[in-house]
Write a structure and sequence with these properties.
It contains 3 helices and no strands. By secondary structure, it is mainly α.
């Protein structure tokens, strides 16, 4: 089952051309959706619809994305944790 999920995510990412997103990834977007957050696309945390890793700057993040990046740095993690969204202080959404 797990292999099929990753395969499906890879296909969707290839179709939408988001395989090189900055700081985030298609699996993070999928996880946010699975956890009930109203994330519809990359703009949930980024300014642009299709952020590119090779052209990324911190200004490419919206308020939520900047907050998640700061949390990642505080935790000294390699990637932002979608679970941290539950403590995002600005504009709390209903799950």
């Amino acid at each position: 089952m797990h292999v099929y999920r990753w395969g499906a995510i890879a296909v969707v990412a290839a179709i939408f051309g988001v395989t090189t997103s900055a700081l985030a990834s298609p699996p993070m977007l999928a996880k946010a959706k699975e956890n009930g957050y109203p994330a519809q696309n990359c703009q949930y945390c980024h300014v642009s619809k299709l952020p590119k890793k090779d052209a990324f700057t911190p200004e490419d993040l919206n308020e939520r994305g900047k907050w998640m990046a700061a949390e990642k740095n505080k935790q000294k993690a390699k990637a932002a944790d979608v679970e941290s969204l539950k403590t995002f202080p600005g504009g709390k959404e209903q799950k």
